[in-house]
Amino acid sequence: MLAAMGHTIIEPVPSLFTFNIKDTRIKDLMGVSAQASVKVNGTKLEATGPLLITHWGMSGPGILRLSAWGARELAAKNYQFTLIVNWLDGMDAEDCETQLKSLKQENAKKAVGKKSPFVFPNRLWESLVTASGIDPETRWADLSKKQIDALTQQLTNAHFQVNGKSTFKEEFVTAGGVSLKEVNFKTMESKVLLNLYFAGEILDIDAITGGFNFQNAWTGGYIAAQSIAGTL
Ligand SMILES: Cc1cc2nc3c(=O)[nH]c(=O)nc-3n(C[C@H](O)[C@H](O)[C@H](O)COP(=O)(O)OP(=O)(O)OC[C@H]3O[C@@H](n4cnc5c(N)ncnc54)[C@H](O)[C@@H]3O)c2cc1C
Fold first, then answer.
1. Which of 65, 87, 188, 212 is surrounded by the fewest CB atoms within 10 Å?
2. Which of 172, 209, 215 to mutate to test the pocket of ligand 1 (most atoms within 8 A of CB)?
């Protein structure tokens, strides 16, 4: 309707959504969370924050943030892309390998898969150990260079295939809407149509989680109401 009346509408796409991933490494780990860095392979998109494993894939603030920064780019990819997870909050591969080598010395006689040496749950650690081709019962002392390399990869550069996002209507917010160039933000009135005011989702405004979308709707609504009532 607004486009027909002369407004420019920035193509709406969903934002703040979770990723669908089917992968043996995270199967049966729902509820497990870790402080991780996540990237979308082949793009500049990256984010850091708690990552939560769900029964359909991955969620949590880190993933939601990535979905917000990449709302348009990921829509263009039809939500098919490779996600790269660093489970060690961005620790680089070299530092990780050094840590694993010193763990090999310190824990020589202990089973690798028994206890996570990093600050994430044992179940996730065991899964990543197995995904590295290491039997969890293997003693640290018996780890080969190849196995340490594989474990380093799983910890700092784990690739996951994303196939879709959370289902329609479960996304939190819409990116896109009425072009901001066509709104007077002192009054929230349209610059195209006299006596028409905007607030909230209808505008081309979206933000990461943390209450910023609510704030946008409330602040805009307050200004529009004051402006209409002539009390601004
Ligand atoms: C699951 C979920 C979680 C969210 N979590 C957060 C969060 O944690 N923090 C945050 O900041 N934001 C969050 N958001 C986003 C936030 O809720 C919205 O940005 C905000 O509510 C938008 O306010 P609004 O008034 O613009 O739109 P809405 O709240 O969508 O209000 C629009 C209203 O218009 C009504 N309506 C639609 N069509 C018509 C019609 N033809 N006639 C009459 N009425 C009509 C609708 O029923 C609705 O009540 C979340 C959103 C969702 C869906």
1. 212
2. 172
End-to-end CA distance of the chain: give it in Å, rounded. 28
Residue positions counted in the chain: 232
List all residues whose CB is within 6 A of at least one atom of ligand 1. Answer: 172-173, 200-201, 209, 211-214, 217
By CB atoms closer than 10 A (0-12, 13-18, 19+), residue 181 is exposed
3-state secondary structure of 94: helix
| Non-local CB neighbours of 132 within 8 Å, separated by 6+ positions | 147, 150, 151, 153, 154
* CA atoms of 16 and 117, how far apart (whole Å): 32
Domain borders along the chain are 17-171, 178-231
3-state SS class at 78? coil
Residue 168 pLDDT: 60
pLDDT by residue (tens digit) across 129-145? 999 999 999 999 999 99
- Tell me if 206 sits within 8 A of 223, measured CB to CB: no
**Mean pLDDT rounded to a whole number for the chain:** 95
Pairing state between β 46-53 and 33-40: antiparallel
User: Which atom of ligand 1 is the closest one to the Cα of 210?
Assistant: 9
Token pair 């209450």 is at which residue?
Answer: 211
User: Which residue of 198, 205, 214 sits with most ligand 1 atoms within 8 Å of its CB, as the best mutation to test the pocket?
Assistant: 214
Q: Which ligand 1 atom sits closest to the C-alpha of 171?
A: 53
